[in-house]
Amino acid sequence: MTKAANPNPAGSPSRTPRSPLTILGQGIVFLVAAAVLASISYRLIADRKVEGPPVLAVPDHIPWRTDLASALDDSRKTGKPVLVDFSAGWCPPCQRMRHDAWPDPRVGQVVRDNFIPVLMDADRRESQQPAARYNIETIPALLVLDGNGNVVRQGAFMSADELVAFLREEKGHG
């Protein structure tokens, strides 16, 4: 009688076959982890690319506020309409306006002379209720509000020239 060969000779690791469900589960975990890492990496790269080095930041000389309720109070007292800019740091069109349109001296002058400007970061908690109230679905979103919070006019992405025309038109209606 011959001796049967040892299926696990000395020194060789013992392996038990993995079930297809285990392999599938590990694959799903790997894909989810890869997707999360890709999303985080994209966000970091996109944010860095949009923000650029500090020397690229252009001051807009607009006295932005972040408290819409107090801006509406001041609007009722002064008669000046409230200009609301809903935007976010990750939004390329918002950042383009931040770097190209808002710093334009003509835009700054019209805003300072005729509006109470409010900047609403779409990612901040305090912006969620106003965004829902005004049905903001895309950004950038610009609203001109009267002192009671009623929308007088609304707009989206604009170049500096378009923004000046938009703001001056509002001045005539205010």
Plain-language structure description:
The structure is a single chain. This protein has helices spanning 20-51, 68-78, 92-101, 105-114, 125-133, 160-173; strands at 82-87, 116-121, 141-145, 151-155. It is of the alpha+beta class. The chain has a 4-stranded mixed sheet, sandwiched between helices. Strand 3 (141-145) and strand 4 (151-155) form a beta hairpin. Helix 4 (105-114) runs parallel beside helix 6. The N and C termini lie far apart (107 Å).
- What would the average pLDDT be, to the nearest integer? 81
Enumerate the strands of the largest sheet in spatial order, edge to edge or round the barrel.
Answer: 2-1-3-4
Summed up, the helix count is 6
Structural class: alpha+beta
What's the alpha carbon Rg, rounded to whole Å?
Answer: 28 Å
Mass-distribution shape: elongated
- Alpha-carbon distance between the termini? 107 Å
Strand content: 5-15%
Q: Got a strand count? A: 4
Give the biggest beta sheet.
4 strands, mixed
| Multimerization status | single chain
In the predicted model, the low-confidence regions spanning at least 5 consecutive residues are: 41-56, 170-174
Q: How much helix, percentage-wise, in residues?
A: 40-55%
Note the run of SSEs as H and E: HHEHHEHEEH
Essential attributes:
6 helices; 174 residues; alpha+beta; disordered C terminus
